[in-house]
Design goal:
This protein is of the alpha+beta class and about 725 residues long. It contains 27 helices and 27 strands. Among the domains are: about 100 residues, 2-Layer Sandwich (Alpha-Beta Plaits); about 90 residues, Calcium-transporting ATPase, cytoplasmic transduction domain A (Distorted Sandwich), CATH 2.70.150; about 100 residues, Calcium-transporting ATPase, cytoplasmic domain N, CATH 3.40.1110. It is elongated, with a radius of gyration of 32 Å.
Length: about 725
């Protein structure tokens, strides 16, 4: 993005700083706060116009720009502008919006690794084309001094280009050799160095053949494969970075001089922090002031809010719902409940990381075999030719080049690139290099309930049984509260055309509910014990008026596509289990609605991880889908894992894949695509094996020069790439 014209020298000198600073000089000397919002649902120019127009009408907004490619809005606003209020406003307009932390977002285009690979690829390609032109002159009949001159010019072009471009392979091979092992880059580096070295020797001896073009071709095509693989990882890193920025890790610490905003990592035991309604509790602690209700769904899976008052113990990760709280920190850092979950995750991830990809398994056999084959060919021809070492070395180099694992090296990344692009367009972010292979092996799916199968936003289900007068009164009270049950009740009542009753003296009692006066008598809407009602077995809020009580019961709304996803998974022969920390009644209702027979309620985080691990130990390959902190250990213990974008950062980091949209429908297609992609990988290995079965005997017989070997190797690589691209057009994978 080009820097705007500015009279401020600092802004001119550092446009990147201007783009990412929380408060920056805008050229006219005024301080401004930069707010970045994620807009995952925008898709066209009309969305851009709608978002920018809506933001421009908000007080405090000076300028708003929408980037459709990044699905992001950058806003210049007054320092006191509330970013979350702008996000809520856009969401109400129909454009889903989330606040991003600018400090977590790397500047666009700062992919140094990708730029380095692309630069080396360009140098190798440019040098290869020029050397090929010189080779054509030699092939056309240039002899003696003219041929030698062309060879020396080729050497001047090729050797610096190889030294620069092939460093990627040389460094990797050297690290492997220092560690006492072989990898794919060892035979690659050896083939490039021997081809270049033999060419220099032949040129110095006025030989008829030099193979600088073969060495450069080898370098170019291998770099192309390496760049494709890097781009797959870069896409995952970019999207994962965007998701990670949804979490803004800061807290308000109370000091003798007032309040200060500090990073969560700076909090210590004994500190006092203020947790405002809507904020997440940053540490484990004890409430010292205030009353409220807490949403613990992401931590325990329990969907009903829990009362909190002085003396109540809070855990990091819970969400404060209704009233401000002052919390004394009792545990921070390694002693929090979050850290204990992290230890479980680390143990499970160590076990899962032992998975070896198809390419790595092939490399263990292929790399030493290539060296032995080339050495045997060289020694045989040295003996058969009566000591003609030039012929023997030439054939050994040809064998190294023709068996060079370019097609084998492309077999996995080419498919992964095609599959990850398809998955991303379908709303699924691939984060792990081996996730597709592991997903194809899945035999059983384990799902969380709250926030995964359901939206985590309850809706009233008994309004038809409530008198219109009571519903009108409940609406008037509910509109004065930010509690999720009250908000859901108000939306449902408004949708039925109910008008709010005329009430006075309305005020909220944090942690209990809301009360007012109606026709001279007190009325209340809130918790059962507060209004004097018998509690229901399900989520409910209660209306008290004139000595009688009315219960409004709620059920959680299923995520869009949940039924479709379950049906698709079953159609592929996969078992489905529902594990939830919620109450049995709520879990039973969701399981019955989706037709899931195997379900368990009240499951603690450690139990989830244990159940998943036991399934794996019994031979099942488990796909775990969850969103809460209570799911992180189970996600790490599973063979492969998926979390929705709405999940916490810790959960998304553990997962192999992230579901970017709100619908679960892509789940079934993701497993199907993974199986198809794995078949493509195996087909690529078969193509590489067939190529070697034909080409290697020719090289061993001395019928393939190093240049012919390089061209044959390139042809096999192109064939593998084309086979991988079939995945994009495959109708079965698209279904």
């Amino acid at each position: 993005m080009a820097a705007p014209v500015s009279a401020c020298p600092a802004c001119i000198a550092a446009p990147l700083a201007e783009e990412t600073a929380g408060e920056a000089c805008r050229g006219d000397g005024r301080a401004a706060r930069q707010i970045i919002l994620s807009l995952p649902g925008i898709h066209c120019a009309a969305c851009i116009a709608g978002v920018e127009a809506g933001l421009s009408r908000q007080p405090g907004v000076r300028k708003a720009r929408v980037n459709l490619t990044l699905k992001r809005a950058t806003i210049d606003a007054d320092p006191d502008t509330d970013a979350q209020a702008l996000a809520d406003y856009l969401t109400a307009l129909g454009y889903e919006a989330h606040e991003l932390d600018p400090s977590q977002i790397t500047a666009q285009g700062l992919d140094r690794g990708g730029r380095d690979l692309l630069m080396r690829l360009g140098v190798a390609g440019f040098a290869m084309m020029n050397v090929m032109l010189l080779s054509i002159a030699v092939w056309s009949g240039a002899t003696d001094a003219t041929r030698d001159m062309f060879h020396w010019i080729s050497a001047v072009i090729a050797l610096p280009a190889i030294a620069f471009s092939a460093q990627v392979f040389f460094r990797s091979a050297w690290r492997a050799l220092r560690a006492g092992r072989l990898n794919m880059d060892v035979p690659i580096s050896l083939a490039i160095l021997l081809a270049a070295g033999l060419s220099v020797y032949e040129t110095s001896q006025s030989g008829a053949h030099a193979y600088f073009d073969a060495a450069l071709s080898l370098t170019f095509f291998l770099l192309a494969g390496r760049y494709l693989d890097h781009r797959t990882r870069a896409i995952a890193r970019s999207a994962a970075e965007e998701l990670a920025a949804l979490e803004v890790p800061r807290a308000t610490r109370l000091t003798e001089t007032g309040e200060e905003t500090v990073p969560v990592g700076a909090l210590l035991p004994g500190d006092r922090v203020r947790v405002v309604p809507g904020a997440r509790v940053p540490v484990d602690g004890v409430v010292t002031e205030g009353e409220s209700e807490l949403d613990s769904a992401l931590l325990t899976g329990e969907s009903d809010p829990v009362f909190a008052g002085p003396g109540s113990r809070l855990s990091a990760g819970e969400v404060n719902l209704t009233g401000p709280l002052v919390v004394r920190v009792t545990a921070a850092g390694a002693n929090t409940s979050l850290h204990r979950l992290a230890e479980l995750v680390a143990l499970s991830e160590n076990a899962r990381n032992r998975y070896t990809s198809l390419a790595d398994r092939a490399a263990r056999i292929y790399a030493p075999l290539v060296h032995l084959l080339a050495l045997a060919a060289g020694l045989f021809w040295l003996w058969a030719s009566g000591g003609d070492y030039r012929l023997a070395i030439g054939i050994a180099v040809s064998v190294l080049i023709i068996t060079c694992p370019c097609a084998l090296g492309l077999a996995v990344p080419a498919v992964t690139t095609a599959a990850s692009g398809r998955l991303y367009r379908q709303g699924m972010l691939l984060k792990s290099a081996t996730a597709i292979e592991r997903l194809a092996e899945v035999t059983h799916v384990v799902l969380d309930k709250t926030g995964t199968l359901t939206e985590g936003s309850p809706r009233p289900d008994n309004l038809d049984e409530v008198a219109r007068e009571d519903l009108s009164l409940a609406l008037a009270l509910a509109e004065g509260s930010a509690h999720p049950l009250a908000a859901a009740l108000a939306r449902a009542a408004r949708a039925r055309g109910i008008a709010p009753a005329d009430i006075t003296d309305i005020h909220e009692v944090p942690g209990h509910g809301i009360e007012a006066r109606w026709q001279g008598q007190p009325v209340r809407l809130g918790r059962a014990e507060w209004v004097g009602a018998a509690p229901e077995a399900r989520s409910a809020t209660y209306l008290s008026v004139d000595g009688r009580t009315t219960a409004f019961t709620f059920t959680d709304r299923l995520r869009p596509g949940a039924g479709e996803a379950i049906a698709a998974l079953r159609a592929q022969g996969l078992g489905v289990t529902l594990l939830s920390g919620d109450a049995p009644g709520a879990v039973r209702a969701i399981a019955a609605q989706l037709g899931i027979d195997d379900w368990r309620a009240g499951v603690l985080p450690e139990e989830k991880a244990r159940i998943v691990a036991e399934m794996g130990a019994s031979g099942a390959r488990v796909l775990m889908v969850g969103d809460g902190l209570n799911d992180t250990a189970a996600l790490a213990a599973a063979h492969v894992s998926i979390s929705p974008a709405s999940a916490l950062e810790a959960t998304r980091v553990v997962s192999d894949m992230v579901l970017l949209g709100t619908s679960l429908a892509p789940l079934g297609g993701t497993v199907r695509l993974a199986r198809k992609a794995t078949r493509r990988i195996k087909e690529n290995f078969a193509i590489a094996a067939l190529y070697n079965a034909i080409a290697v005997p020719l090289a061993l017989a001395g019928l393939a020069s190093p240049l012919a070997a390089a061209l044959a190797m390139s042809a096999s690589s192109i064939t593998v790439s084309l086979n991988s691209l079939r995945l994009i057009r495959d109708r079965e994978a698209r279904a």
